[in-house]
Amino acid sequence: MIEILSTGAVNSVQDLGRTGYLDAGVGRSGAMDLPALEVANLLAGNDRHAAGIEIALFPFRLRFERDTVFAFAGADCPARIGDREVPGWWAMNAVAGDVLTLGLPRSGARAVLAFQGGIDVPLVLGSRATDLKSAFGGLEGRGLNRGDRLSLVDGPRKRLKMEAGFGADPTGLRGPAIGKDDPVVMRVLPSAEYDTFTAEAIDHFTQAEWSITNDANRMGYRLSGPDLQLTRKLELFSHGIMPGTVQVPPNGQPIIQLAEANTCGGYPKIANVIEADLWKLAQAPVGARLRFEMTDRDTAVAALAKERAFMTDLAAAASLMRGWM
Question: Which of 72, 62, 149, 145 is nearest to 98 (CA)?
Fold first, then answer.
């Protein structure tokens, strides 16, 4: 059991999301930074689909009410358990009564926490993820409040032999850290209505820098930059969209759909962010600058294959390092 001591309303229980229900109007939800949660689960000795906590508002504090193992990944934020510092991308023992505190990120925007066994909330359509937009899943379909107590899935209580814990180097997954003054480069594929945008709009889309506006949440980010115009007026029926879809409404300012994206929409689609780069958006705060870089399907598939290979290697290494006692 863990108790939430300090939190924000958008911090929530998340797993890797629910799939297979887009045709029924149910979006994916799940963690915004899926690879970070998967890494945290592997470090904690969990199945990759176990539920953890996504934190987007800081400071965040919780108290452990039983001995357990936890892992922390995602944003680079100061973390302490008692008087001990917790490095990023790290697994560590906790004992009953310990208080874990995550401070304001130095870089990035979202941290994730995984706990041995995973958080025990009801499965809804095969997932424990919270859909904040539709108010179901997770803990009563809502974000976390101070005083909430979350159970962990029952199972053998094991401890790491290494009291200092162990961790993973995320550069093999993410490459070098992005500088605070550098734009975040997102690789994209052309989408269905790409050819109906003017040549000038295409140039603007791939050469200009775009700012994430205050209108940014788990549903999507609205961007600010040059107007993107069509070669002709389009009247489209609502059609399928998914996380990563870049739509352009009549005002010419793009919207990137994210974890709680609607399952359909009628705005023209200029591009889709490749799946392997969606984590970058999760870690891009309001005001961050983006650049779009056109790529091809082979590159997108290779990027996912690299991610899966990293996870496979990490699972094997973590199994050796844990040394349960």
Answer: 62
CB 49 within 8 A of CB 30: no
Report residue 160: phi and psi, to 5°. Answer: -75, 135
pLDDT band at 323 (very low <50, low <70, confident <90, very high): low
Domains of the chain: 2-174 (no CATH), 184-294 (2.40.100.10)
State residue 119 phi and psi, 5-degree precision.
Answer: -75, 135
Whether the model clears a pTM of 0.90, i.e. scores above it, the answer is yes
**Tens-digit pLDDT profile for residues 66-82:** 999 999 999 999 999 98
pLDDT digits 0-9 by tens, 7-57: 999 999 999 999 888 888 888 899 999 999 999 999 999 999 999 999 999
Cα separation of the two ends of the chain: 20
Instruction: Give DSSP secondary structure letters for 130-185.
Output: -BTTTTBSTBTTB---TT-EE-B-------BSSTT-EE--THHHH-SPPPTTSPEE
Is the per-residue pLDDT at 208 higher than 70? Answer: yes
User: φ and ψ at 100, to 5 degrees?
Assistant: -105, 130
21-24: long-range contacts (C-beta < 8 A, 24 or more apart)?
Answer: 21/125, 22/240, 22/242, 22/263, 23/263
Structure token digits, residue 312: 């496979």
The Cα–Cα gap between 2 and 15 comes to: 17
Helix H or strand E encompassing 240:
strand 239-240
Tell me the pLDDT tens digit for each residue of 173-207. Answer: 888 777 667 899 999 999 999 999 999 999 999 99
Omega within 30 of 0 (cis) for the link into 59 = yes
Half-sphere exposure of 92 (CA within 13 A, CB side): 21
